[in-house]
Amino acid sequence: MQTGSTNIKVIEANAGDTLGVAGNNYRMIVTGAQTAGAYSCFDMLVPPGGGPAPHAHPKMQEFFYVVEGEVTFKTQAGHATIGKGGFVHIPYEGGVHAFKNESGENARLLCTVMPAGLEAVFALIGTPVAPGQFLPVQPVTEAQKEQLKTLGERMGQTIYPPDYLD
């Protein structure tokens, strides 16, 4: 007798494309294409000084687990430094948020997003890299800005100035 699901996913340690996104490395562990859009999951390697700009995506929730190092999460409710083993949940309608690695060591986060779709943003602005390879932060081109605006409108995501939550 067969029991259990036939769609169980087993992902090898280095499987998935790695993209350099604004100076960080995001490995696409599971994409929406693999989950019928239900969720996506990323291994985020964030160097000192790295992290995304403040942003909001009210139709999506994010879960962050700090695997190594520490990052400072910034939200409209305040700032909190979260270290190894810490967890942050940005719920639907969670407001503006960002994180930054303010330490002198790399930080690694496991990020799950529901529903999937954030990987489309990363694919648009990211550059394929080898695991552990960090690219310098590149300015966003006008074409990328227009694509991000269109994608942001479709996904309900808004990007804010870097100092918005300071």
UniProtKB/TrEMBL annotation:
Matching InterPro entries: Cupin_2 (IPR013096), QDO-like (IPR053146), RmlC-like_jellyroll (IPR014710), RmlC_Cupin_sf (IPR011051)
Ranges of residues in domain Cupin type-2: 44-112
Highest taxon in the source lineage: Bacteria
Gene3D superfamilies per UniProt: Jelly Rolls
Signal peptide stretch: none
Protein name, UniProt field: Cupin domain-containing protein
Organism from which the protein derives: Arachidicoccus ginsenosidivorans
